[in-house]
Amino acid sequence: MKRYIPGILAMTVVVVASNILVQHLVGQWLTWGAFTYPFAFLVTDVMNRLYGPRAARRVIYAGFFVGVICSVVGSQIQGEFGALVSFRVALASGAAFLLAQLTDVSVFNVLRRLSWWKAPLIGSFCGSCLDTLIFFSVAFSAQMAFLDPANDVSWANEALPVLGHGPVAPLWVSLAIADWCVKVAIAVIALTPYRAIVWRNVPKVA
Hints:
By secondary structure, this protein is mainly alpha-helical. It is 65% helix and 7% strand. The protein has a two-stranded antiparallel ribbon with strand order 1-2. The protein has a two-stranded antiparallel sheet with strand order 3-4. The longest helix is centred in the middle third of the chain and has 25 residues, at 87-111. The radius of gyration is 17 Å and the shape is globular.
């Protein structure tokens, strides 16, 4: 169990930091949380490579538990437009995190015997796509309003050009695309620390 502690601590830092930083905007389309959250995939992939899928999943479940606590705390804090974390956002965040991270583990395992960079990159890419799709559609799309009818997300469905230049679509689509681009960029950047961490440790599993 002790070998999981560094991974659990790292995932806790990523989840808590992301829940705090998501409240602070960067430009029109992003929050600071968009730049910290993707490192959850790095933590998962390192644990998977060094200790196997079981260890990676335990770290994911620990991160999910921490995320639930953050959502509960956020739901009790009142911001300018109500609670910082609504039921829809909490549901979207938890579902996206859990399904995306577990998908990363599954894809990683299929590719783990290929070139060192393929499993973490492709696993993170697949997880990032799923994470973005689930979170933004569940949290903000008009079609999912039945999940929390009292929560007004009309602002996220305002029709605007995608990223200010493309075809007209709900605002949340632009937010999702910008967020996904950051996730993919960080998946590439994270290959450097992934390689450094993994290559300095003797793999405990094949």
